[in-house]
Automatic annotation (TrEMBL):
Domain of life per record: Eukaryota
Family of the protein in this entry: Belongs to the pyridoxal phosphate-binding protein YggS/PROSC family.
Name of the featured protein: Pyridoxal phosphate homeostasis protein
High-level lineage: Eukaryota, Fungi, Dikarya, Ascomycota, Saccharomycotina
Domain Alanine racemase N-terminal stretches: 30-235
C-alpha cells in the first residue's frame, strides 16, 4: 500500500469533499460520476482518497497509469483520459485489468484495435471523443456520421470487448471561462441527440473539468473530470 501522511490525507479529503458537494448541488439526483484526475501525482495521494472511499480516478499517460495500477488496489475504476495513440492501445487494455473506461476513443480503427486486444478480460467502457471546438490541436471525431459509424460497429457482434458508454469532449478554454452557456457543450448535446436518434442509444456525456464542471452538469454532463482542484497544482511533466 502506498503510504501518505495524515496531513496530506486530510488535505485531499477536504478538497475532494468540496468538489463532491458542488457536484451534488448541481446534480441532486446523484447521477453524475466525479472522476478524480490524478495525473503526475504520487500513488500515495490516490491511496489516501481510496481509503476515504473514492474509486474513480483518471490518468493521462499510459505508462504512468500502468505503474499506478500495479501498485494500488484492484477495485479502483481507472479512466484513461489522455490522448489515445494507436501505439499505446495494447499497453492500456492488456496491462490494466481494472481499466474501467477509455474516454478518448477518436476513431473506428482504434476502437477495433482496443476490442481485439481486450479479448478474454472484462469489458471496458468507452466514450467517443468529439472535437466540439474545432481546434486543430484537439483530437476527436469531427462529424456525426463518423460517430454513428463507430457506434454501430460497437453495437455489432464483431465487438466483444468494449461497452459503449457515451460521448466526451474537451471544450475550448474561452468557453470554459465564459460564465455563460458553453457552446462546445451545447454542440456535444446536439451530437448526442443525433446519434441517439440514429442508433437507438441514450449516451452519457463526459464533459467538464475543474473550471467548468458545474456548467457542464447544468448542460447535461453525467461524468466530470476534476484534477487540480482536488490534488493541487501539478509538477511539470518530465
Amino acid at each position: 500500500m502506498a503510504t501518505y501522511t495524515p496531513e496530506r490525507a486530510t488535505q485531499l479529503k477536504e478538497a475532494y469533499s468540496v468538489i463532491a458537494n458542488q457536484v451534488k448541488q448541481a446534480d441532486p439526483s446523484g447521477k453524475v460520476t466525479l472522476v478524480a484526475v490524478s495525473k503526475l501525482k504520487p500513488a500515495s495521494d490516490i491511496q489516501a482518497l481510496y481509503d476515504a472511499g473514492v474509486r474513480h480516478f483518471g490518468e493521462n499517460y499510459p505508462n504512468e497509469l500502468v505503474d499506478k495500477a500495479q501498485q494500488l488496489p484492484q477495485d479502483i475504476k481507472w479512466h484513461f483520459i489522455g490522448a489515445l495513440q494507436s501505439g499505446n492501445v495494447n499497453t492500456l487494455v492488456k496491462k490494466i485489468p481494472n481499466l474501467y473506461a477509455i474516454e478518448t476513443v477518436d476513431s473506428l480503427k482504434k476502437a477495433k484495435k482496443a476490442s481485439a486486444s481486450r479479448q478474454g478480460q472484462d469489458k471496458i467502457n468507452v466514450f467517443l471523443q468529439y472535437n466540439t471546438s474545432g481546434e486543430e490541436q484537439k483530437a476527436g471525431f469531427t462529424s456525426v456520421d463518423e460517430v454513428v459509424e463507430c457506434v454501430k460497429w460497437l453495437q455489432s457482434d464483431e465487438n466483444t470487448s468494449l461497452e459503449l458508454k457515451g460521448l466526451m469532449t474537451i471544450g475550448s478554454f474561452e468557453q470554459s471561462v465564459s460564465g455563460e452557456e458553453n457552446k462546445d457543450f451545447a454542440t456535444l448535446v446536439d451530437v448526442k441527440k443525433q446519434v441517439d436518434s440514429s442508433c437507438g442509444t441514450d449516451l452519457d456525456l463526459s464533459m467538464g473539468m475543474s473550471h467548468d464542471f458545474v456548467q457542464a452538469i447544468a448542460q447535461g454532463s453525467t461524468n466530470v473530470r476534476v484534477g487540480s482542484s482536488i490534488f493541487g497544482a501539478r509538477p511539470p511533466k518530465n
